[in-house]
Every structure is written in structure tokens, then in C-alpha cells.
Write a structure and sequence with these properties.
mainly alpha, MLTG-like, single chain, two-stranded antiparallel sheet, 8% strand, two-stranded antiparallel ribbon, 6 strands, Dna Ligase, domain 1, EC 4.2.2.29, 340 residues
Length: 340
């Protein structure tokens, strides 16, 4: 009898062991299956927004609802055992059914959010910047128009007659904006970049120019300069004119005042446009910048070359001819007309 009980107990233990092993194997197989891609052949991009404070369980449910994973529960288990639950970063991610949950988690842990790459060339006006941002699906022209009426905190107070308070203070560079960036966020990013990369130069220089005057001069140099090596000389020409009360007579300021592209040289009528930006009619600097200058032009305006020149002419081949007297300038113009 005792042997029979022992035999039955052994059978029960064996049965339980087999059942447990089967359950473990089933769980392993189920988990392995649940963590496979939904469809390895489907590379369709699906955008998923992860908001700050969202738990791994909530993220799993979102992924499951969008048919990106096979099981929200398996996703949650994966984050728990991999200790990734608390290191997932918010943002918008570009995912696809061909990815497995491990790959998605790795992207969220590294913060590989969708970005919009936008290159802003040196010398772009604010309106050109807005057009480029809109073309990259950041906001609308109407949204930017309402924002541009009020300067961001810290921007210089616009002087009377300024066309655009933001002009000159949106730093030209290549930006990687997160997907979903708003117009205000984009403008703030460019202004913040100006603050961090440009303002330190000004503070160290102890320049006699105000911040607005410096950026305004740099913006003119930026547009007038066709050869980076001549930037400081061109800045020197304008400084010399300012010192003796001579009009800057910059075509670039007139073109800005007109507000639309003009092919070729400016006409006499163009030079008579009634605007505080017309430096043929008004002495001194215009009321504000005419473009968003880069570092080279900003440095040139901050440290202009000490030259005797009062005139210059930019040639089509990129070279610049300088002159001290008006007679020398006329000779340079004649040379340019004969050779180009």
C-alpha cells in the first residue's frame, strides 16, 4: 500500500513537472512570437507621438492600437525585464510594422524622434525664412504673420520704421526641428541660437555700436559682400562713411526697402524710393537689419578693417574693387563695364 502511494506521488510530481515545463515552454514560445514584427514585409511609416509622463503600459497600448506590435502585454513585460520602462523619451517616432518591439524600444530610449531638417542660408530675410519653414510643413504664412508682430523676450526693441522686428536675430544655420514643431518654437530656437552663438561675441568686444546697430551693419555687409575675404574691408568702408556723415548708398538697403526682387542694376527711380531704409536718401544706418547675417559678417562688422576706402564695387567674378576717391571709383566702374 505504502509503495502504491509512493508510486502515485511520484506520478503526480512528474505530471506537475511536465505541466510546468509545458507551461514555461508555452510562455517562452508565446513571448517569442509576441515580440516578432507584425509584418516583416510592411515598411509603411506610421507616426507615433509619445507624450511626457506616458507609462510603458500606455505606450504599449498605443502601439497595439496602431497595429505596430502583436501584444501590449508582451511589450510591457519586455520593458520591465529590460529595465527600459523609465528611460523612454517623449516625441514623435516614425515606426513600421516591419520592426520588432526591441527595435522600437531602442529608438525611444535613444530619443530617435522624427526631425525636419531645414537649412537657413546666411543673408536670408525673415520672410525668406518663413517661406522655407512653411515649405517644410512648419506652420502657415498666416500663423507666422501674427507671431512676427511682437518681438520675442530679449530681442532689441524695434526702432521707429522697422519693417520686421525679428530681422537680423534669427541665426542662419541648419536646424533639426522635431516633428510637430510649431512656428513659435521654430522662431524661438533660431533666436536662442543667436543668443548663444552671437551675443557672447558682442559682449566681449566692448563695441561703441549698440546691438541693433552692430547687427544692422553686419546685415548690410552680408548682402553686399560677394567674397568672404572682403567682408571686413566692406565693413571698413561703411564705418568710414558713417564717421564723416556720408550716406552709405547701399543698393542692398534699397532692394530691401522695395521689398521684391529686382533683376540687374537699380534704376534712378528705384534709388528714389521713399523709405527709411533707403541709404541714398538718408544718412546713417537704416532703422534695423535688412537680413539675418552669419558669423563672418557679424565679426567683420565688429572688427572692420582700418582702410582708407570710401567706395567699392563688387564684380561678377566675385572680386571687389575698392577706391578712396570718387575719381578712382569712376575708373573702377568703367573697368567693370568694359570687362563684364
Amino acid at each position: 500500500m505504502r509503495g502504491d502511494i509512493t508510486f502515485r506521488s511520484g506520478r503526480l510530481v512528474q505530471w506537475i513537472g511536465t505541466a510546468l515545463l509545458g507551461a514555461v515552454l508555452f510562455l517562452v514560445f508565446w513571448t517569442w512570437t509576441a515580440l516578432q514584427p507584425v509584418n516583416p514585409q510592411d515598411h509603411q511609416a506610421i507616426y507615433v507621438k509619445i507624450v511626457p509622463g506616458q507609462s510603458a503600459a500606455q505606450i504599449g497600448r498605443v502601439l497595439y492600437q496602431k497595429k505596430l506590435i502583436r501584444s501590449a502585454f508582451a511589450f510591457r513585460l519586455l520593458t520591465r525585464f529590460s529595465h527600459q520602462a523609465r528611460s523612454l523619451q517623449s516625441g514623435v517616432y516614425r515606426l513600421s510594422p516591419s520592426q520588432n518591439p526591441q527595435q522600437m524600444l531602442a529608438m525611444m530610449e535613444e530619443g530617435k524622434v522624427v526631425t525636419i531638417r531645414v537649412s537657413i542660408p546666411e543673408g536670408f530675410t525673415v520672410q525668406q525664412i518663413v517661406h522655407r519653414l512653411v515649405m517644410h510643413h512648419i506652420g502657415t504664412t498666416q500663423e507666422f504673420a501674427s507671431l512676427l508682430k511682437t518681438p520675442l523676450p530679449g530681442m532689441p526693441k524695434p526702432a521707429p520704421g522697422v519693417k520686421d522686428p525679428y530681422e537680423g536675430y534669427l541665426f542662419p544655420a541648419t536646424y533639426q526641428f522635431p516633428y510637430g514643431t510649431t512656428p513659435k518654437q521654430a522662431l524661438t530656437t533660431m533666436w536662442t541660437t543667436f543668443v548663444t552663438r552671437v551675443l557672447p561675441l558682442y559682449k566681449k568686444s566692448h563695441s561703441s555700436l549698440s546691438l541693433s546697430q552692430w547687427v544692422t551693419l553686419a546685415s548690410i555687409v552680408q548682402v553686399e559682400d560677394k567674397n568672404p575675404g572682403d567682408a571686413s574691408k566692406i565693413a571698413g568702408v561703411f564705418i568710414n562713411r558713417l564717421k564723416i556723415g556720408m550716406p552709405l548708398q547701399s543698393d542692398a538697403t534699397v532692394r530691401y526697402a522695395i521689398g521684391h526682387p529686382i533683376t540687374g542694376s537699380l534704376s534712378y527711380t528705384n534709388l528714389q524710393v521713399l523709405s527709411p531704409y533707403n541709404t541714398y536718401l538718408h544718412k546713417g544706418l537704416p532703422p534695423g537689419p535688412i537680413s539675418n547675417p552669419g558669423i563672418l559678417a557679424l565679426k567683420a562688422a565688429l572688427h572692420p578693417a582700418k582702410v582708407p576706402y570710401l567706395y567699392f564695387i563688387a564684380l561678377p567674378n566675385g572680386h571687389t574693387l575698392f577706391a578712396t576717391t570718387y575719381q578712382q571709383q569712376l575708373a573702377n566702374i568703367q573697368y567693370a563695364n568694359q570687362h563684364f
